[in-house]
Amino acid sequence: MEEVEWIWLNGEFVKWPEAKVHVLSHALHYGSGVFEGIRCYETEKGPAVFRLKDHMKRLFYSAEVFGLKIPFKRQELYDVTLKLISKNELKECYIRPIAYYGYGQMGLNPIGAKVDVSIAVWSWGAYLGEEGIKNGIRMKISPWIRPPTNVMPTNAKVTGNYVNSILAKVEAVEAGFEEAILLDINGNIAECTGENLFIAKDNVLITPPTDNTLKGITRDSIMQIALDFEVKVEERLFNKDKLFAADEAFLTGTAAEVTPIREVDGKQIGEGKPGPLTKKLQAKYYDSIHGRSPEYEKWLDFVK
Ligand code: PPE
User: Fold this and answer.
1) Bridge partners for 253 per DSSP
2) Which of 122, 154, 187 is at the close of a domain?
3) pLDDT tens for residues 10-43?
4) 1 located within any domain
5) Is the dihedral of CA 235, 160, 263, 289 positive or negative?
6) Which of 122, 144, 171 is the last residue of a domain?
7) Which atom of ligand 1 is nearest to the CA of 165?
8) Cα separation of 259 and 274, whole Å?
9) Catalytic site positions
10) What is the Cα–Cα distance from 287 to 284, expressed in whole angstroms?
11) Same domain for 102 and 160?
């Protein structure tokens, strides 16, 4: 990982090597934290963070679901994020805010434990590879099931949830695939380890509802772009048959951006390459994050 100079930790800018945690931090043992993944992109008007307000809103939503009290205001974390990017003189970066139970109290009951908050930024390239963004990836349906929300709060970005994602990811990668698709307990497609999933059939875009999955901000952006292109969008449950019979499929996420899917479980999706609708939505998404689409400039928060 590429280090930068500054990390923001509990109200102060500290040097990268100084941003450490104690081995008895609560979150290290029990996954008791909430976090976000955000990206900043270079634009003609300077670096801009994509949908920063929405990401901060989701951070506080996750904290509320989990019952963790963030000892800063949403606006403070918003301001600090922009400042941190300029302080590190970055043009493009990934942004990782995290709030977690820190050091001082062990045992499962975290009530009253200290909450630490940090924001780190670093440069992070294509999550599933440049090749994947261009030509599509090969996916595997995971034997691991996305837990329902009465088991884990899967529509909140709680760190402990990601054990489920790691299990699915490792299983898929070891079997020679780039990424895993997780089903819900009823066999419907839920989402991927760190992305939402879309299929296109007869020019209609379909994505699972987010009752049991993360309400992706990239997902929401793609749905808005599709509607602006007058493409019909449906949020409904579907199973793997529909996925295998799709004309096109792709996944969305801050890290993965818009990555086409060319194959699932060895079966070719559509023509086995990024389809026309995927390419059109992908191109518009890249234009919007890089400030080349005036209609979506509302999604950008510029670093001063
Ligand atoms: N589902 C999950 C489970 C998920 O973690 C993400 C983001 C999404 C969907 C897409 O959400 P959004 O980024 O708002 O469009 N995953 C983040 C973490 C990746 C990581 O490896 O860490 C991300 O994309 O930043």
Assistant:
1) 257
2) 122
3) 999 999 999 999 999 999 999 999 999 999 999 9
4) no
5) positive
6) 122
7) 3
8) 9
9) 157
10) 5
11) no
Interval between CA 301 and ligand 1 midpoint (Å)? 20
Number of structural domains found in the chain: 2
**13, burial (CB in 10 Å: exposed 0-12, middle 13-18, buried 19+):** middle
Per-residue pLDDT reduced to its tens digit, 43-95: 999 999 999 999 999 999 999 999 999 999 999 999 999 999 999 999 999 99
CATH of the domain at 192: 3.20.10.10
Pocket test for ligand 1, best of 1, 54, 98, 195 (most atoms within 8 A of CB): 195
Given a contact cutoff of 8 angstroms between Cβ atoms, the answer to whether 116 and 99 are in contact is yes
Number of the ligand 1 atom closest to the C-alpha atom of 217: 14
Structural domain harbouring 84 = 6-122
CA of 49 to the centre of ligand 1 (A): 16
Residue 86 CA to ligand 1 center (angstroms) comes to: 24
Tokens representing 122 are 């670093």
How much is the pLDDT for 304? 85
Q: What is the pLDDT of residue 185?
A: 97
Give pLDDT tens digits for 277-286: 999 999 999 9
Best probe residue, ligand 1, of 57, 162, 214 (max atoms within 8 Å of C-beta): 214
> Do 98 and 188 fall into the same domain?
no
